[in-house]
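User: Modeling request: complex.
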Amino acid sequence: MERPLRLVTANPLDQLARTLEALLVVASAPLPVEELTAAADDERERIELALGLLAERYHEGRSGIVLEAVAGGWAFRASREASEACGRLFERPVQRGLSQAALETLAIVAYLGPCTRPEIARIRGVAADSAVAGLVERGLITESGRDDGTGGAVRYRTTPMFERVFGLESLSQLPRLDDLPGDVDDLRERLHAVAEQRSA
Amino acid sequence: MIVRELELDLDAFEGPFDLLLTLVLKEEVDLADVDVAGIVVRFVERLAEREKLDLDACGEFLVLVAALLELKARGLFEDEAAELADLEPEEAAEELARRLAEYRRMKEAAGWLAERLAAEGDRFFRLGPAPLAPALERRLAPQDPEALANVVRLLAAEPPAVSLAHMALRFPPVAQFLERFRALLSRRSRFDFDTEIDGLSRAEQAIAFLALLELRRANQISISQAAPFAPIRVSRVEQESAAVNERTHAWNVRSA
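Assistant: Request completed. Predicted assembly structure:
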């Protein structure tokens, strides 16, 4: 049976949007669309439309609460303009004071993970134990199985917290390694330049 | 200061640093013979001669010496199962360059993360442990109360009374069997142990066996058994050999 088109004042998704709003405000970590779909007991397509509606409403410059797609899900956060006030009241232990060693270790785990401490040490040239322990404590990386074979080393991967802290929707948002400088040829040249000059 | 022109005077090599590198890469000089520490000392001496620290030279020198050391270490441990062990020196240098490049890329990635962190530093969000999901309702398989009753009935049964019979056991003295066996042997030259003890209780059989051992110790009998668990045959030791055995026994007693 076809229903005649009629003008509606309220968006038919409004009620669903209110439900999602409620779920998101209770959550302490980003909620994937699948979880929202299951909890709201509705169709995925409609959930996505409603999320779009909410994202428009909770937008930077329009609201003190901002809805963002991050770490594989959706989450509320404070607007950037309120960050100073937030900073006076709230500490951020996860991202505060990350050392260069920690950042390098984090980069290796993010790009090459899951990887083991020996692998990290091989690339960095120094033991990675304390850097890895620090990152685990901050919740930026976590154990993810073991290397094959008996006594295999523990492997580490980044957590959703890592993506959230760095504002990434997923790890695929990391820049491609090829786009970063650090040319093999350059180093190879430097290693051989001296010898080549002499033999020429 | 130019690192490649560093003049070296080592046991294995005399000349500028870059020539040494060339010869090593061409495998004309065995790196195992090269005193890398000597190169370092020479470099530090040259550095000390200058008032200003030449960081560029230091960096270049570090890279080159590190490469040399890695090549040397690999050469010294040839049977190492590492994937690098089979590499030619030039391939090893290539591998080293690749590793350095890998590290450099990771350093760049770390730099990118640091920038990102600074840019995203004004994002505040709620942090906390994930709220507990409601516990799933556990569905039990349909149960039969009768089966439970049967099991409980087993538990409710009176346990068997503990036997105290062993506490009342009386053991006959070994001497009783000694006399019996001696009497037997005075009539017959041999007897079958199993036949003799047939019908006795387990404890009595054990005592009888002790008596047998006692007689054997005193060299009054000899014991034989054709096979394990075969009947034990007991025979009297002949008088003459008994005398010899007696002496042996006395000697044994003395030396014991």
